[in-house]
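Supplementary notes (optional reading)

For those who missed the lab, this is the record we used. Protein: Small ribosomal subunit protein mS41 SAM domain-containing protein. Length: 110 residues.
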Amino acid sequence: MAWRQMISLNRASLQTHSSSLSGFARFSSKSNPYAVKVGIPEFLNGVGKGVETHVEKLESEIGDFQTFLVTRTFKLKKLGLPCKHRKLILKYAHKYRLGLWRPRAEAMKS
């Protein structure tokens, strides 16, 4: 009899606990939609360190931002990007895909 009471109490506490877990949805690891539209120029300007000099080349050859995010190092090498810039682009693209980094929104100049 005592076992049945313990099991029923345990089930009841699990049911109330699982309903309270729904409040944690706002703390999920998925990032919220970003207010500023991010494209290749905004991304490269956010990375900085001289990478923004390759905006025209990357936009003409790759075009789409989603394709840019999954571009491999060999394709970037074929486009003539130096090693340091390839490493920076790939590092920040990986962080962007995980939602750990976003390019800063430029302040509006008045």
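If you only remember one thing from this example: The CA atoms of residues 6 and 12 lie 10 Å apart.
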